[in-house]
């Protein structure tokens, strides 16, 4: 475990004196400054593994179907506008040169902590069963399963 | 070390009811939770005070528990920090008292009243992550962190409010209620662990557990004026923490003092065979390392190299936050630190990279909520429709939005452009931190670009809301530990 720590000092000014800059956002600039701007265009320069013509704006109805979430028409409209706004903002990542950078799946950590792959009996089974909304004898009960035509 | 307090406003309307004959409670009943560093000797700690007063017979766990329950009853109508208050608090306190009266040993957290964020599983007690889809859900097991707390005698007083599944920065995205900031009821407590932070600030519990995926312990600690500690990734087992973004999630600690947050961290840390990402490294014992203020030299931090992150003080950061941070840096210099500015060139890229990674992982993690095995089910005549409706009616707007964004970022043809690229940016951020820490022992920065803002102010503007996370997300991407505490008092 790292012995060094990142110490974050929190803000001290009283809330009533705060002016919130709601119309600002970090830019896609590769410079280090926190410059804030709202609209960031999707990158023009893509790495070799990304074809810009493939990056279509999200089709919210289709995404909702994929994610198995029913949305009302008004939700599709409201949610869709926000999602497009955020995905646009994600576009700034396309401008970063990462051609020789390995992706990091998670923080650095020690390996070899996997436990033996052996079944164990969980004692509190009745409590698990009690949480199941529809249960019949030893089976979870669900409606009929139909494949889409 | 650094002490600043926002002047108490609404909290003065919420007096702590003193309990006769209880020195422990009297010490909690100070008019505000201001920490006067000059009078702290040995370290101010409600955990240590509780232990001492229980073992000396000055008070009982039952008296302490009663006073906290009374405080909760008094303050909850205005604050709404808790989604559930345990029915077993007094019973557990009485058991501790009986053990003490029989001369039996009690654990280091005996009688300590602890709030637990609602996305951390507590056996038999509602654990909903503030989501309708888990309304009334009672897990069949304790999270490892909760199990450890109970084994050490800690009393879980209740489950604290949060943004649904940890997705938010104000606690307004709870499906059940909006928590108010104890210092000013018109303002947010921060989030997503807003209930845990506000409960400690309002003395509804001594310490609390939260979780931090992109700043969810540190930012509410800042907004509520308490200590918030985000451990290194892997230090605390995530078993029983409802997964949001598994590569970033950690369980963290809140307390009124650094000592309390440290001791709670010590209690919950360590390897757990149920979490393969938990670390096997030894858990250092913090308590024996506490020093009395009296033993300090005039420059107790002599030689400590402190890096002030330049990018956290530039355009877009509130002037009050900037000046407070600079004052804190000057104070550290006065204590003997060598403070220099450091640059993290990748700093501004962390925010979009974080939101790509967190949304992507959440779209996978939250697929488990299908309405079949637990949680709310919306019956339908066909299985897919059951999933669609259970999830559609069970999840709130922000959760749906993040799942959909994650689904988009992980789609075939988009994966390289978003998810993989965000992970490459994570590598750049890790390298920048490593370089900065090669030349510094610690780094300092503000916890948020502003202090607490008004309830409702950013609710419908996702980008404005996300911008507030700029100070904290990089630390999660790098897996580093961080602590937030008040800076020097500049308001009085």
UniProtKB/TrEMBL annotation, chain A:
Segment forming the signal sequence: none
EC assignment: 6.3.5.-
Enzyme superclass (EC): ligase
Family listed: Belongs to the GatC family.
Protein name as catalogued: Glutamyl-tRNA(Gln) amidotransferase subunit C, chloroplastic/mitochondrial
InterPro entries in the cross-refs: Asp/Glu-ADT_sf_sub_c, GatC
Main function: Allows the formation of correctly charged Gln-tRNA(Gln) through the transamidation of misacylated Glu-tRNA(Gln) in chloroplasts and mitochondria. The reaction takes place in the presence of glutamine and ATP through an activated gamma-phospho-Glu-tRNA(Gln).
PANTHER family, A to Z: GLUTAMYL-TRNA(GLN) AMIDOTRANSFERASE SUBUNIT C, MITOCHONDRIAL
Highest taxon in the source lineage: Eukaryota
Localization (cell): Mitochondrion; Plastid, Chloroplast
Reactions that this protein is recorded to catalyse: L-glutamyl-tRNA(Gln) + L-glutamine + ATP + H2O = L-glutaminyl-tRNA(Gln) + L-glutamate + ADP + phosphate + H(+)
Keywords for this protein: ATP-binding, Chloroplast, Ligase, Mitochondrion, Nucleotide-binding, Plastid, Protein biosynthesis
HAMAP family in UniProt: GatC
Assembly notes: Subunit of the heterotrimeric GatCAB amidotransferase (AdT) complex, composed of A, B and C subunits.
Gene3D superfamilies documented for this protein: Glu-tRNAGln amidotransferase C subunit, N-terminal domain (1.10.20.60)
TrEMBL record, chain B:
Keywords: ATP-binding, Chloroplast, Ligase, Mitochondrion, Nucleotide-binding, Plastid, Protein biosynthesis
One family name in Pfam for this protein: Amidase
Boundaries of every Amidase domain copy: 63-484
Family per similarity comment: Belongs to the amidase family. GatA subfamily.
NCBIfam families, per the entry: gatA (TIGR00132)
Primary subcellular site in the record, as a coarse category: mitochondrion
Entry's localization field: Mitochondrion; Plastid, Chloroplast stroma
Enzyme Commission number: 6.3.5.7
Reactions mediated catalytically: L-glutamyl-tRNA(Gln) + L-glutamine + ATP + H2O = L-glutaminyl-tRNA(Gln) + L-glutamate + ADP + phosphate + H(+)
Organism whose genome encodes this protein: Brassica cretica
Cited function: Allows the formation of correctly charged Gln-tRNA(Gln) through the transamidation of misacylated Glu-tRNA(Gln) in chloroplasts and mitochondria. The reaction takes place in the presence of glutamine and ATP through an activated gamma-phospho-Glu-tRNA(Gln).
Catalytic site positions: 117 (charge relay system), 192 (charge relay system), 216 (acyl-ester intermediate)
Record's protein name: Glutamyl-tRNA(Gln) amidotransferase subunit A, chloroplastic/mitochondrial
Gene3D superfamilies in UniProt: Amidase signature (AS) domain (3.90.1300.10)
Subunit text: Subunit of the heterotrimeric GatCAB amidotransferase (AdT) complex, composed of A, B and C subunits.
HAMAP family per the UniProt record, alphabetical: GatA (MF_00120)
Anything else known: This protein may be expected to contain an N-terminal transit peptide but none has been predicted.
């Amino acid at each position: 475990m790292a012995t060094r720590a990142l110490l974050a000092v929190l803000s001290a000014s009283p809330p009533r004196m705060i002016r919130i800059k709601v119309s600002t956002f970090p830019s896609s600039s590769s410079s280090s400054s926190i410059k804030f701007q709202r609209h960031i265009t999707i990158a023009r320069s893509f790495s070799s593994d990304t074809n810009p013509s493939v990056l279509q704006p999200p089709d919210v109805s289709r995404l909702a179907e994929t994610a198995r979430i029913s949305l009302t028409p008004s939700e599709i409209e409201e949610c869709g506008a926000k999602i497009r706004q955020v995905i646009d903002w994600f576009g700034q990542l396309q401008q970063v040169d990462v051609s020789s950078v390995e992706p990091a799946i998670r923080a650095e950590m020690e390996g070899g902590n996997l436990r033996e792959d052996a079944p164990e009996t969980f004692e509190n089974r009745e409590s698990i069963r009690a949480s199941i909304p529809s249960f019949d004898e030893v089976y979870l009960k669900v409606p009929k399963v139909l494949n889409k035509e | 070390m650094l002490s600043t307090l926002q002047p108490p406003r609404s909290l003065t309307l919420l007096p702590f009811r003193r309990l006769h004959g209880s020195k422990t409670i009297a010490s909690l009943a100070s008019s505000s939770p201001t920490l006067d560093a000059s009078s702290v000797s040995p370290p101010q700690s409600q955990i240590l005070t509780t232990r001492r007063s229980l073992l000396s017979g000055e008070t009982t766990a039952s008296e302490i528990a009663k006073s906290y329950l009374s405080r909760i009853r008094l303050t909850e109508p205005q604050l709404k920090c808790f989604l559930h208050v345990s029915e077993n608090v007094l019973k557990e306190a009485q058991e501790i008292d009986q053990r003490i009266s029989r001369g039996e040993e009690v654990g280091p957290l005996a009688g300590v009243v602890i709030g637990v964020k609602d996305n951390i599983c507590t056996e038999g007690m509602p654990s909903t992550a503030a989501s309708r889809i888990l309304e009334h859900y009672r897990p069949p097991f304790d999270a490892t962190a909760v199990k450890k707390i109970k084994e050490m005698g800690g009393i879980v007083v209740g489950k604290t409010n949060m943004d649904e599944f940890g997705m938010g920065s104000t606690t307004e995205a709870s499906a059940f209620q909006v928590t108010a900031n104890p210092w000013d009821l018109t303002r947010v407590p921060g989030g997503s662990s807003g209930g845990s932070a506000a409960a400690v600030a309002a003395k509804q519990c001594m310490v609390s557990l939260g979780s931090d995926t992109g700043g969810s312990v540190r930012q509410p600690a800042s907004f509520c004026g308490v200590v918030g500690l985000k451990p290194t990734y892997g230090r605390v087992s995530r078993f029983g923490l409802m997964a949001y973004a598994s590569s970033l999630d950690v369980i963290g600690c809140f307390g009124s003092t650094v000592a309390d947050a440290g001791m709670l961290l010590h209690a919950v840390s360590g390897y757990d065979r149920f979490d393969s990402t938990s670390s096997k490294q030894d858990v250092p014992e913090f308590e024996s390392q506490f020093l009395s203020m009296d033993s300090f030299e005039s420059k107790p931090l002599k030689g400590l190299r402190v890096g002030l992150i330049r990018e956290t003080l530039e355009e877009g950061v509130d002037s009050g936050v900037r000046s407070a941070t600079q004052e804190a840096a000057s104070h550290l210099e006065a204590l003997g630190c060598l403070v220099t500015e450091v640059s993290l060139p990748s700093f501004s890229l962390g925010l979009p990279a974080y939101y790509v990674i967190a949304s992507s992982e959440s779209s996978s993690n939250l697929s488990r909520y299908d309405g079949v095995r637990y949680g709310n089910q919306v019956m339908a005549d066909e299985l897919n429709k059951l999933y669609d409706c259970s999830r559609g009616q069970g999840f709130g707007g922000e959760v749906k939005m993040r799942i959909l964004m994650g689904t988009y970022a992980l789609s075939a043809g988009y994966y390289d452009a978003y998810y993989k690229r965000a992970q490459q940016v994570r590598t750049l951020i890790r390298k920048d931190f490593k370089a900065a820490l090669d030349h510094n022992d610690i780094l300092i920065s503000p916890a948020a670009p502003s202090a607490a803002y008004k309830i409702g102010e950013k609710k419908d503007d996702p980008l404005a809301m996300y911008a507030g996370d700029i100070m904290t997300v990089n630390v999660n991407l790098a897996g580093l530990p961080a602590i937030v505490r008040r800076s020097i008092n500049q308001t009085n």
